[in-house]
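[job 4471] stage=fold_predict status=RUNNING
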Amino acid sequence: MATKSLLFNQEPVWHENRQGTRHKLPVAVQSWAYESGSLTQRLRNVYGGSVAVSVLLQKWHSPFLSEQKLLKQPDSRYSLIREVLLHTEGRPLILARTIIPAETIKIAHSNLSQLGTRPLGEVIFSYPKLERVEMDVTLIKPCLWASITLDKVAIDQPIWGRRTVYGIRHRYMLVSEFFLPEVLRWGE
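[job 4471] inference complete, writing structure tokens
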């Protein structure tokens, strides 16, 4: 499993966003999970523009089974997997995992495969016809995080996350974001 992710020891269990799900989440989590715009832009608004990206993993590999199913990809198909930490002044804010199939990269003119330390939100929210197709939520216990993640971020409590399928001209990508305690202080 380590080759599929540096964030997790095993794939998180996700719950479909159904009517009423929002009100079962803590208020601060609701605020971030249901943000309709770019999380990167919201982070910059809250933290004065000083948000940085540390790339933890970026490689072609087959995603987790539930990710393949959401993206309607065959089991053996590789996608670009990117895992990052968004932070400001040494404070970790959001861990993110993005799955981008090759056909989505082609439609986006390779912009999505050459992000470097640029936040994904800067790129995808510039596409005029970006659509949010589906969203799930999760609560991950500390024991499920991989040791490399725990080396970068002290996780001693369950962490809420969302994963969103985005579409660009009917080509899809999956973005999972996990809200660390520092960022939730600004969601209430």
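[job 4471] summary: The chain has a mean pLDDT of 87.
[job 4471] exit 0
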